[in-house]
UniProtKB/TrEMBL annotation:
This is Flavin-dependent monooxygenase. FAD binds at D47, R103, D295. GO terms for biological process: response to antibiotic. Residues 3-346 form the FAD-binding domain. Belongs to the aromatic-ring hydroxylase family. TetX subfamily.
Amino acid sequence: MHTPVTIVGAGLGGLVLARVLHVHGIPATVYEAEASPTARSQGGMLDIHADSGQPALEAAGLTAGFRALVLEGREATRILDRDGNVLFDEPDDGTGTRPEVQRGELRRLLIESLPDGTVRWGHKVAGVRSLGEGRHEVAFADGTTVAIGLLVGADGAWSRVRPLLSDATPEYTGSSYVETYLFDGDTRHPAAAKAVGGGALMALAPGQGILAHRESGGTLHTYVALTRPREWFAAIDFTDAAAATARIAREFDGWAPELTALITDSDTAPVLRTLNTLPVGHRWDRVPGVTLVGDAAHLAPPNGEGANLAMQDGAELATALATHPGDAEAALAEYEQAMFPRAARAAADGGELYELMFGDDAPHGMVAMFTGAG
Ligand SMILES: Cc1cc2nc3c(=O)[nH]c(=O)nc-3n(C[C@H](O)[C@H](O)[C@H](O)COP(=O)(O)OP(=O)(O)OC[C@H]3O[C@@H](n4cnc5c(N)ncnc54)[C@H](O)[C@@H]3O)c2cc1C
């Protein structure tokens, strides 16, 4: 009764989709460009939300496995100004509702929950085309092709499946992150570790900030946020780690040294993460036999929602397919009708959050939000 599902992309969205399909006995194949599960470091902590990521993992039957990955104490949040003054400090007292896990570990949990061979590693999709009547041809970078029925693009920002549905392409948000890591913070970088505290640190000013998180093993993982034109970043040679670090650090001249240490003392070369977005409210008319989940559908600037929404999309699409056996079109329509407004709302909220974090009133807007004064 159930059509096998072909998924492009083994990120959190595609993997949750495949897993929830498997729970319902629906076969799925995931084509992933990366050569193996460990081909790329998956760095970063994710807080898993009670209304999106957590129910998705529940639908995947993986709540216990997910809970075992939660890093205790990491829900602590503090907001500092550029001088290092602590304006807001909320410890993790164990009553928080947004447990933190390492993205790589969550991804591994999902991969290991799938039957062997579900994910076809090293299969970079070069393009897709419609064969009519809801069927598609997927072409891989190595020149091979497969003809398939139901197709789901879970292939992130630069989706190769999206053109079947929409002409939209991601545009630069006006801001980028530069990523650094300080390892073994408590012993090797104690002042920076103390500033970060037990969980997340936001040191904010108009147009820029330092966002750091304490990961496992005392690793201090930082995104240095800068609202600057794309050309400004293009003028920095990120292959010269020392010069790039110095250039980024210069934007934080006069900031407290325990904060700038998160840039200048990095144990890794700084990595530029350009932030792009699809239009808020991106949607499409129903096209037989194909849809999108996660960033492929609704890429937005990082606002703590993207991975959660991707997992929710995957779980809801799989559940819709399971409840409409033999009628994939009804399932896709049901999924999209709920997903479009949900994604639009999250993107709009994310825009407001960004304004609070890096707008003219920073850091006070965020403090007011956390204290309920704003
Ligand atoms: C710097 C930064 C920080 C973030 N922090 C957070 C956070 O704290 N919390 C949160 O919820 N979200 C966060 N996000 C957003 C989150 O990372 C994304 O929304 C989420 O990863 C989307 O999941 P996805 O499965 O849709 O896509 P992705 O995670 O992008 O996965 C797509 C997969 O498809 C594969 N792929 C791509 N192209 C092809 C192809 N042509 N052929 C085959 N495979 C392909 C990729 O290799 C990848 O494995 C952050 C984003 C950024 C950039």
